[in-house]
Write a structure and sequence with these properties.
Blueprint lengths: L1 E6 L2 E4 L4 E9 L6 E7 L6 E6 L6 E3 L7 E6 L4 E6 L8 E8 L11 E2 L3 E6 L1
Parallel strand pairs: 2-11
Antiparallel strand pairs: 1-3, 3-8, 4-5, 4-9, 5-6, 7-8, 9-10, 9-11
Length: 122
Amino acid sequence: QVQLVESGGGLVQAGGSLRLSCTASGRTFSTYAMGWFRQVPGKEREFVGGIMLSASYTYYADSVKGRFTISRDNAKNTVYLQMNSLKPEDTAVYYCASSLAVTTLTSHVNYWGQGTQVTVSS
């Protein structure tokens, strides 16, 4: 079992920045690929970004590429999502995800966090 707890969400104006954190407990954090997804009411949860076990490779949805950066600190069992140049359309609940292999698919995620709200005002 892996437990994931997100933090860092909140309200920010368009063009601003936020950093989300996700701290893991349970099974060895460094054995899992990590990712971030987001969801708005009435829509499916969508992939935002992911990072491989070694942190040597990151990948992003086109909608956030160049604005968001994902990183991980295996010593702290924590993954981060730095969000810059935020837009109102980035408003969503953001979920931390853990999987055995890199994935953009919600069906391949093994563990989810509880989610943290990000609201970007125009």
